[in-house]
Structure formats: structure tokens, C-alpha cells
TrEMBL record:
Protein name: Protein broad-minded
Domain BROMI middle region residues, every copy: 173-850
BROMI N-terminal domain span: 12-138
Compositionally biased intervals (Polar residues): 146-159
Biased composition (Basic and acidic residues): 136-145
Annotated function: Required for high-level Shh responses in the developing neural tube. Together with CDK20, controls the structure of the primary cilium by coordinating assembly of the ciliary membrane and axoneme, allowing GLI2 to be properly activated in response to Shh signaling.
Domain called BROMI C-terminal Rab TBC-like: residue spans: 868-1299
PANTHER family: PROTEIN BROAD-MINDED, UPF0183 PROTEIN
Organism: Carassius auratus
This protein's record includes keyword Isomerase: no
Gene: tbc1d32
Main location: other
Coiled-coil stretches: none
Cellular component, GO, one term: cytoplasm
UniProt subcellular location: Cell projection, Cilium; Cytoplasm
Amino acid sequence: MSQFSSEDEAELQSLLRELLKSVKDRISGAPSVECAEEILLHLEETDKNFHNYEFVKYLRAYVESSLGTVIEEETENFTRGDGHAIGPGQDTLVHAVTKRTRESAQYKQMMQTLKQTMMVVVESLINKFEEDQLKKEEMDRKSQHEQSSSHYTDNCSDSDSSFNQSYAFIKHEQLQVIAEKLDPGRPREVRLEALQSLCYAPPSDVLSCESWTGLRRNLSAALTDPDPELSDKVLQFFAKTFSSSPLNVTKDIYSTIAKSLEAHFLYHKLSFPSGSTSIDANRPDMARLLKQMRLINDFQKEVTTFWIRHPEKYMEEIIENTLSLLALHSEQGMSSPGSEKSLEPIHLISLLDIKATWFKKWMHGYYSRTVVLRLLERKYKTLIVNALQQCIYYFDSCDAVREETLEIIHSLEHQQIGPARRTLYTSKELEFVYLIHSLCVLGRLVMYTNGRKLFPIKVKKRRDPVTLTDLVVILINIMYQHPKPSCGEMTHADSLSPTNLVMEVLRTLCDRTECAVECLYQVPVIETLLAPVISLLKGKLPKLNSLESALTHIADTLARIASTERGLSLLLYDRNLVSAEGESISAAHVVVQFTQRLLAKELHVFSELEIPPGVSGAFIFVCRQMYNTCEGLQVLRPYSLHECIAKAWRTTSSVSERVPTPVPGAPPVITSQELQSVVAWEEMLLDNLLNFAATPKGLLLLQQTGAINECVTYMFSRFTKKLQVSRCEKFGYGVMVTQVAATAPGITALQSSGFVQTIVVELWSALECGREDVRVVHPKSTPMDPIDRSCLKSFLSLVNLLSSPHAVWELLGHQALPNKTEYNLREMATSVIDLMDRLIIINSDAKIHSLFNYEQSHTFGLRLLSVLCCNLDSFLLLESQYNLSELLLQGQRDNVTEPPSGEGEFIIDGLSVERNHILVRIGTVGGPSERRLPPRALQRGNDPYPWPMVSTYPLPKYYILDMPKTLRNKQESEICALLASSKETERDASWMEDCRRQFCKIMATKSNTLTGYVLADFLERVVLHLSSSSTDCFFPPAEYKVVDHSVKTRSLSSVEQLGVGISLRYGKFLKLLREDSEQDLCLLLKHCQEFLSQQRVSVTSELSCFQGGYPGHDWFAASVFLLMHGDVGRSLSLLLRFSRLLPSAFLWPPRLHSSVHLPIEIAQSGIHPIYSCTAHYVEMLLKAEVPLVFSAFRMSGFTPSQICIQWLGQCFWNYLDWSEICHYVATCVIMGPDYQVYLCVSALRHLQQDILQHTQTQDLQVFLKEEPIHGFRVSNYLEYMEGLERNYRSMVLSDMRSILPRSS
């Protein structure tokens, strides 16, 4: 087929037409002719149907008929090898054949024939196209007279693209003709015909032509032409341009429309409707303005998605044209509502985009926000002034205007869509939509720093400029004007309500720290928020349209403010409010007083109003944001809010329990909806009660309400559902669970609720069962870490749960191991004693065989045991009940090779290394420089584990470090001189001050000299002086006669006997005790037990800590015994005198164990003052002084109180060297018991970097419990502690003194 016949040309023309129709959509979207050519050139790559087009099939057949013979010949030549060799660049036969074919004469002849034929076909196609076009234009002109002018709707910006009609490229000469035809002086029909032709042309060609300037001027004139058909045609062209052209093109169109509108509003004053009149959107001039405004508003909302890809000057031009248009405001608009006003662009944009979506989008990105704020500040500040003026007008308007708000909202929210859509808008509706638009603009403006810098703003009728604080006060007052709901309508949540929009602004400001500081954390704002509350407390009903709604919004805002540090401080400490009694108090006092009155229903102004529980719950939540912090609880504690909430909960609970069983046929006593409301209120009260457990002292208050079990059960139900603690809480229940688990009643409640069982079952499932949904062919990877990541969360949960010795005593005390002869493989562990039996104390083959992953599971158990044994009291209980050390030693002895002759060698594996570490840990006592613990990691090289293996006690000497020799000065130290010269002046009041001053001086310069007998003598003299002073004695004197023979008949428990053994080993290591000191230490402990037992109340409780005496070992008495070098007489004498002093309550844990000196409810609570007082203030000071450490604890789910009660409970044994333990005791006795708090804060501050690091590695709990406090010296932090004393002593020490009953 070398030539084409006329039939072939006709067929080609038809096929080409079909191809162009198929790809019409692709071509019509091209912004230029060049782009259209590119689309056609790459059609094969982009169109999956390319090879199915008939035109393509025709061409393929033509190529095959013309070149088929040539291709076959070349292929045969290459396969026979007769042709040219294939070069290195032609590595395939196809490439070689293709090259030869394209060089042939047949190929050149085919291409020439094809080009000539296609040129004829295309020219014929164009001619036919132009004929069709002329015919169509003629038809259009005839039909235009028959069409209605209402054919074009105001949705022009959403109309279909004009490319859905015919598509044609247009020449510049034609555009010149069209521009001339559009001249305003031409007849209407000529201009309309020109516009019709223009709509068919590609917008890129139109805007790039030389005559665009004149064309643009004529289009602007047509846009403002009173003939709606002309203006609609222009808008159609502009709409098509917006949808298919780049920004450099569309910005000109946008500018044209914006400037046209601006000119119209400047030279044609439109009257604002007044009275009963309204504007009609169907009125031709108004319809034209609305259509144009709608088009640019749609473009405003879409342009943000792509203007960042273009030069900033394009965006700046669009923004400036917009602000210039919207900033138009006549002087009448600023005057009083009674004067004649003009309709302005801002009213129309508010009507079309009531929530200012365009402004929100423009302010969202930094790229555009910077330009908007710069232009607002320099040129168009009137836009913001007008918006602010509108809000002030609404705020100052009469009640009648505000009462109509509900009706306006309803009419605007429920407009009909379609032919019957709303077209009439009254003046009040226009003012209202402008108000909503202004609220949205101002709310978005104050979110950003440079937006807030626009304030203060000067407005009319106000003497002083409006500041940011004034704006927020105005917004809050607008919120108070919530329309009163109609009958039967209990809530009002319309999206256009000014109240809800203000609340959105306030919530946004609360969530942004900088915004909240500048806008909300101001005294006038808090005063405005609490003004209705103070009025109600004074017995006056505030002037509010909806009291319930206003109070709920007030509480919501206050709760968000209280959830931040700065906001909480403002509410707690700024005493700028006047109470109902006329006193200056802080906002916290006002809120808690109001909450108390709500719960007790003592507000007399509510006698005729039924305030729903939601309002009370909202204000309780505000209080909760305060009392779940240590500092907030400190302020709110005098109000006993926990008792008020508990009382309300009991009342509500009794109502829900008394609901009778429904009887068929009988009317229900209470409806299901009412019952649901009662249950919801009951759960809300429980939830708020539970949050007292967020702090140590709060947990004591919760325990005193008697509702701790119900609260923990409620917490467990939410915990299992993985629900958030509250909308203001960033973390889950982890911290609260750890806090609760630190006390005996708390861990008992966790056990009874099922929480402990859930944790254990989850652990067992992860450790032994694996993932059930994974097929056997996809086994999980072998864990590389001793504790697999899948089990780490369960491990840390168990560590948090069992961190306190109280938890171990309650869960494991007097619990025997099951030690079954056989274990079912499907039998899961469900309790802590099961874990001890199955994972830790594996003393039989049955236990080994019952585990699927023996080594991994046993390693997990040993790791848990290692952490538990860090607490000496927990270790003593486990050792006394389960003989741990012998079990571990036997495990080591069994883990050796069996050579034919001689002794076997230890097998180094994960279990033997872990056992070795535990044996050294429990076999020695000492601080960081007094003992050496073997690491758990192996080393590279021939000897992977060079540390001695332990299989018998005593330990190898490698693990026991030599005591550093203390250099004694032959001359008496300053303390010795003070003691020698003070015998005559000891009774002077200034003697103790001299002692403290001298003590601080020695600690700062020569703290290493304050040891041994010198320190013992000094402490003895100080205690004697303090106990001889009636002002310094805190506890009433107790008569105790030291009679050795009666005391010797007492017996020590197995726990105490083990504690004696540990104390003796430590004392001998320190060279402080003789070999025969055991009897003396036992005698001292028996005397202490006898003395303290005489001062205990009888407690009837199921808690293990109350079964007998103090459940742990007396580490403080043991420390005093070592301090006195084993002198039992001096030790007992010191302890008896010391027992009268306040420091004994906190340094000596057994001193106040169920003591008669405590209030009976505290003595029976099982919560020691060391936890509820010392640990509470450690957390409080840590948050203020070392906030990074406090935050690290929160993130880890651990609490500072947990580690502090462990340090203090065992008198820092194993955590500090002996010299530092002595300095700790001396500091608290000499400087005051509050130094116990300061020392703990100092220690945590010292560990800050380690704490932050281990928070990231998710092992903070393990690190703090297993590692000693390296490098900490009391003397180095004494000056820091003195600074804490100056700031906090009045609060901490007074609270420590308040542990006695008020009658004492």
C-alpha cells in the first residue's frame, strides 16, 4: 500500500475524527497549544487504550504492508550471518533489524506518502470543522432569543467547563477582532457574539495575546453591564479560566473581578436594608454582585492548594486585592445603628462564607499568613477594626436584638436548597452573619503572634484602645448571651451560635501555650469568667439567658486553663477576686466553694431551678484539674472536697440500688433514661473521686472516704477498655496505678478489682502463649534481649505494681507456693504467687516441662526477682518464705559440666549469669563504692565472663571492696571543740542555732571529718538537747523502763532475724561491729518493738501489714546501732529520746506504724506519713524545681514517691555509702525533718541526666531500683537544700507537724 486512494483519505479522515473525539477531554484540559501537542505525542505512554483505536490499527496495517518484506529479508540476513556484524551498541537482533529497515528506500517512500496524505486529511478536517462551527454559531444566535434570562444561576463558579462544548485553537488576529467587538460602544448582539466566541477559545491563548489589555478592559465593562446575559457570559469565561489556567494567568482575572467589585461599591452606594425591608438576591444588580463575589470566594478557598508553587508576588497581589475590597467601609457603617448604612462587600462575603473559611485557609500556612498579617498591619487594619466594632455592637446591643438570635440562627441553618431556595435577607440577618464572620476572623487572628501584635486597636465610642484582654472579655460576655432555649429544647448546639463559636476560640487559645498566656491568663479574664459564679455565691441570680449553658461553658474554659502549669498557678495563687464575704481570694477558692454548694444543693437562688448534674460535674472537673496535682491539692485540701464528692456518690449509689425490679404491666418507677442519667452521674462522681489517687496525699484522702475499692474497680473497667483518663490528660492510667500500688489498701483494691490478674494473664500470654493469630509456618523471631520487646510492657507493669514492699507483703505474705507434681500445659498463671511458682522458683522438672519457652520465661522471672530484691524488705519476706538464696545457689551448682575426672566448670549461659548477679546483689550490702556487682553482659574474647561464679556463701572477695581509710586529724575538729565548750551553754536557746551553723560549715569544708565517734557524740548531744526542750519535743513523753530480762523473752520474726544478719555483715564490713554484736542488735530491736508496741492502736483489718507488729526490718534502728559502734545502751538511749522529736516520725518508719499519736483514721489506713507527706512534697517540689525529671517520671508510668519510699524505708542502704547515710541522718535531725524532702529532691536532681536517658530506653524503674546513686554527696547539695528550705519550709514543715490530731 504505497499510495492512498480518495476512499482511503475519507476513511483516514473519519478515523482521525474518532481519535480526536476520544481524547477530547485530555486536550481540553491543556492550558496551551504546546501542552496539547505534548499530550498527543505521548499518548501511547499515557493512554491504555491507545492500541485499540481504529486509527492506530489502520496505521499499523499500513506499516506492515509497506515494510513487511523488508523486515523479513533483513531478519534472514542477520540469522544467516551474511549481513553486517552487530556492533557493540546493537546488542539485540531487533535493534539491528530496525536500524537497517529505517535506512531502506521503502521506509523513506512510505514516510513521504504518509505525510502528504495526512496533510490533505487534516486540512480537509479543519475546513469541515470551521463550516460546522459557523453553522452552530448561527443556530446559537437564533436560539438565544428564545432562552430565558434566568438560565444562568448564581453558581457560575461551579458551572461546567466550556470545553464540554466544541474545542478550537484561536489565532491572535481573531482575538483582536473579538476585543474590538467587545467595545462598550458596539451593539449588544455583537458583544454577545464576541463573548460566545471567546468562551470557545483556550483561556491561555486569550491571556497571552497582544490585545489582552484592551480585551481585559472591555471584559470589565461587560462585567458591570446591566444586561445580565453579558455579565454572565463574562463570568462563565472567568470561571473556565480559574479551573484550567495557572496562577500567573488567573491572578489577572481575579484582580479584574475584585477591582470591578471595588469600583462598583465605591461609586454605587447600595443602601443597607432597614426595618422590615430586606435585600433580594434575585434582583438583577444584587444577583450580579453575589455571583461575582461567589466566584472570587470559591477561588479564595481553592488557591491555597497551589499558590506556594508560584512566586510570592502573585500571591501578594491576590491577597492585597482581596483585603482592599473587603476593607471598604463607609463612615455610616461605623456610626450608630439608627443612621443610614451602606451595603458593603464584607456583608456579601459574610453571607456567602459565613464562617470565613477563606481567611482560615489563608492564615493556616506560614507562606500566606505572613503576607496577610503584614498587609493588615500596614494598609488594611480597618478590616480588623470593623470586625471588632461589629462584636462590640452585638455585645452592647439591647436584649431584644439578642433574643432574636435564635430565630435568625434557625432561619439561616434550615434554608431550603433548590428552586425554592431563600432569596430575601433582612438587615438583622445581615448584621448577624457579619458578626459570625467577624468572630471567626478575630478568633483565627489571635491564634498567631503577629496577629496579636495588631492589638491594641482603637475603635469608635471607646476612650481606650481595645487590648487583647479586652477582646477576650468581650468574647466571654458574648458567650454569656446564649439564646434562651425554647420550650422542650434542652441544648442548643447550632453551629452558627455565637456562644459556640466563642467557645471554639477559647478552646483554641487554651490549647496554645503562647496564646493562652497573652490572652487568657489575665486577671480580668478570670474575673469575667467567675463573675456569674460569685454572684450566685452572694445569693444573686446573674443576668444570663441560659444559666445552665453559661455555667457549663465557664467550667469547660476554667478546666482547660487549669490543665496547664501557668493557668493552674494563676487559679491557685493570684488573689485578685472578691469572695462573697468580701475577702480577696484566688479563683480556686471561688470554684471549690461553688462546687461544694452545688453538691450540697445549698445555693438558695436555685430553689426554683433544677440544675442538672452536668453542671455540677463540670465544676467538679475544674477542681479535679487542680486536686490531681500536689500544689492544687495543697490549696483545696481545707475544703474536704473528697468528702463532699463521696457523700454525693453514696446518695446517688443508693438511688440506683433502690430501683425495684420492673413488673410486667406495671408502670416503671423510674424510666430507663432517668436510670441512665443516674448511673452516668454515679460514674462521673467515682471518676472524680478516683483522681485524688494521682498524688500521695490525695490517695490518703481517697482511702479515708471508704470508696477506694469502687474507684479502683471503675478505673480497671476503663483501663481494660483503653480509655483516656480525661480530655485534658495526655497519659493513661499508668501513673495512677503505680501510685495506688504503693500502699497496702491500694494494692488490695487492685487485687480485688481483677487488675493484678489481668496484668499477669497478659504477661503469660505474651511470654508463653505467643500470638494465636500467627500460623505455625511463620514462627516469631528468637528474642535477642533477655526480656523480649513483646513482654517489656508487662515486665514494667509488674515492676510498678510490686515496687513497694507493701505490695509484696499483701500479695505474697504468708502465701505458700503450690509446688504441684504436675502442671497442665494449658494452665495459665493468674496471680503473683503463680508467677513466683512457675517463673522464679523453678525447683522441679515438672515446672521446667510446663514451660514452652523455659529459658526465656525463667530469665524473665529472674529479672523480676532481681528488681524485687532491690527492696530489702521485699527480699527479706521472699527469703524467709521461699529460701531464695539456697535455691539460686543450688541452681548454680547444678549448672556445671560433668567431666570424666576432676571438678566440672560452670556453664556460662543467660540463666547462670542472671543467678550470679542476684546472688551477689542479695549477698552484700553497700553503696556505690562499697560493693561490686557483676554485669549481665558477656565480653568479647577468650574469656567472655571473667567474674567469679557464686555457688556458695560467703561471696568471693572480688565483690567486696576495701573500705577507704579515714584520715583522722590529731587535732580536735570544730565539732569536737563545740561539744567540749558547750556543756555550760547547752541550755541556751541559741545553742542549736550554733550547732546548725557549725554543722553547715563543716559539711561545706571538711565533711569527711564528720564520721565515726565524732558524729555519734554530736548526734547524741543534739538529740539530748532537743528532747530536753518542751518546745522542740513533738510527741508526748512515753514512760519506758528498760528491763532486759523481760524483753529477752520476746522473739524476733524470721524477717527480722534475716535483717539482723544483713545488718551484722554490713557493720563488720565497715569495721563498726565486733564478731559478738548479734545479741546486742537483737536486744536493741526487741527493746524497740516493746517500746513501740505500747504506743500502737488495735486495728481490725485484713491487711497483712496489721497482722502483728511492723512487717519489715527496722533499718533505722540498725543504722543507729552501727552509728554507735554496736553500743546497745547508747543506741537505745538515743532512740528513746529521739522518739519524742518530730524527725522520728519520718526517719524511723516503725515509729508511727498504727501509732496512737496519729488520728485514728490515718492509723487504720495503712498509709504511712512518709508516703502521704514526705513523698507528696517530693513530687510537689520536683515538679517546681526539676520539671524535666518530673515529666520523665510521668512518661515512664513510674512515680517519684515509689523510689523515695524505697530509699527512705531502708535508710538509703545499698544506694549511698555509709558516710553519706550518716550525713543524711545527721542533716534531718540537726537541720529539721523537712530536709528529708529536700534531700530526695537533690538526689533526683543529681540523677537528672541518667533519668532522662533511661526514660528514652524505657527502663527508668529498673535503673532507679537496681543502681546506686553514684557520685551523690550530701555536703555538695547542702547549699541547694538550704535554698529549698527558704522557699518551702513554712509549707512542708507545717504539714509535717499536722500529722497529729487537732486536739493534740
